[in-house]
Amino acid sequence: MTNESSSSASNFIREAIEEDLRQGRFTYVRTRFPPEPNGYLHIGHAKAICIDFGLAEAFGGKCNLRFDDTNPVKEDVEYVEAIKEDIHWLGFDWEDREFYASDYFEQLYQFAIKLIKKGKAYVDDLSPEQIREYRGTLTEPGKESPYRNRSVEENLNLFERMRAGEFPDGARVLRAKIDMASGNMNLRDPVMYRIIHATHHRTGDQWCIYPMYDFAHGQSDSIEGVTHSLCDLAYEDHRPLYDWFLDELEIFHPRQIEFARLNLSYTILSKRYLKQLVEQGYVRGWDDPRMPTLRGMRRRGYTPEAIRRFIEQIGVSKNESLVDISLLEHILRDDLNQRVPRVMGVLDPVKVVITNYPEGQVEEFEAVNNPEDESAGTRLVPFSKVLYIERDDFREVPPPKYHRLSPGREVRLRYGYIIRCEEVVKDPQTGEVVEIRCTYDPETRGGYAPDGRKVKGTIHWVSALHAVDAEVRLYDRLFTVPEPGKPEEGKTYLDYLNPDSLKVLTGCKVEPSLLNAVPGDRFQFERKGYFCVDPDSTPGHPVFNLTATLRDTWAKIEGELQGG
RNA sequence: UGGGGCGUGGUGCAAUGGCAGCACACCAGACUUUGGAUCUGUGGAUCUUGGUUCGAAUCCAGGCGCCCCAGCCA
């Protein structure tokens, strides 16, 4: 269960590729991941990336990175850099195959000329509103534009002048002449080129006409010799259009195969919504650890391996599904459990004084760094008379089945001694426990009871004298319902934001070995969860992000006790 | 009679005419110096109707349900 066979799971796309190779439709495999540089990558993109790169590799082929940058007003270099960084972090490499649809603008233009000359494309003067009206509806056919039958010469002339910048935005478009009565809306004379007087992040002011995605994507794949163009289900009914362009242009014909995109419970994976969360301040940025963006997950402490294993596990199909986020969390924990060092950190400290422990004495106990990995070795943890333990690890009135510290009861300090609670000091005003006074049994060094007595509870602790102060940011799911993207009548996804998705804890006490931790370092705080050092950390004052809690069986028991 | 796609436990994915299986979740137990991890076990599914067949989740026909498409976005 720990090490799944890597990327060998079969799926319908893999079978289709095998079939293509067997039949000689293609003699090699080339895929591509085609993001538009207008936003940050999220876990949904990770699925596409793993499929595109993974399948190419599985067949000894390559995967190109191609930016589909056909809309200058929405795109920016900032996004291309971020996208490249995130793909590399995930563990994939496109080597020298970094392409841009904008690299093909001149060729695309020539393709358009060819279609005009074939009488398969025309310049339309209709306004955007008119084009919409002429398009018809889902159940009624559209009608042909009065400009549809212009001569080839006139179309050529007009299109050249569009390129030359003679017309304002929106004045004219170039359209494919296909079928205004088609049941497939994409075939009702789709727009191929529009006029946009805007500076493109790569081509500058070289162009004022830009190809539509539909006129760029298929041909870009063709130019690159892409054999298998894998994409979202949404493009299923665009395929006949791409086929039409490729066939009319008589160029290399890739095979497009569509699969369902990822939906994750308690999560939103829409660029538009994610952007809104950032811009309206619902989260602290694109890399907020609560975000499903790759940068957010990275900052949260996710490993790229866990994300890739998750994508393998969920499989590939055409079913529109909602994957339970607990699967992601399970795989994350499984990965972290194997590789991350253990450490002790007290999130909500309360003071414990060992009354019979010598004043000023310090001992060091050997602690195992990772019980799952012997090679991780051990470390020394200092112990002294005054300690901090978790406030929740003490109950003045212990509930049933509670086997931690309470008056008159014993508990084991992990790697330390067995202690007994003798006295509780409370704040006279608030009644809050301010100090727990205990005695220790000197015979139990290391936590072993030589008399064989059973001590059920083992709790973590930090020596007050040696503790490092830390900030800990606790995260919970951003949304309170499984499908925030499908709000009930009259609500929006924002109505389901979890008000408790972030809790900032200050004054946390962590063991001194954590003083040298650097941003990105991951740890398991024993009995609490996995944490990752945040870039906001300053020397001597680390900040930790909760990556994932440990399974908490006690919380479940207690919840059931309270629930009746 | 617009076009396209999809229906398998609660969730996701398998089974490619031959005993419906795996993972997560759930529930119960064992073990435990992390109430972690690990181990064992229980329950639960083929949208529906009819047909073909010795045999159907799979093939055929009809029905039902859900999703996508009317940007000069991608």
UniProtKB/TrEMBL annotation:
It catalyses: tRNA(Gln) + L-glutamine + ATP = L-glutaminyl-tRNA(Gln) + AMP + diphosphate. Keywords: Aminoacyl-tRNA synthetase, ATP-binding, Cytoplasm, Ligase, Nucleotide-binding, Protein biosynthesis. GO terms for cellular component: cytosol. L-glutamine binds at D68, Y213. It holds the Pfam family tRNA-synt_1c_C. A motif ('HIGH' region) lies at residues 35-45. Residues 341-441 form the Glutamyl/glutaminyl-tRNA synthetase class Ib anti-codon binding domain. PROSITE patterns: AA_TRNA_LIGASE_I. It is found in: Cytoplasm. Monomer. This is Glutamine--tRNA ligase. It comes from Anaerolinea thermolimosa. The gene is glnS.
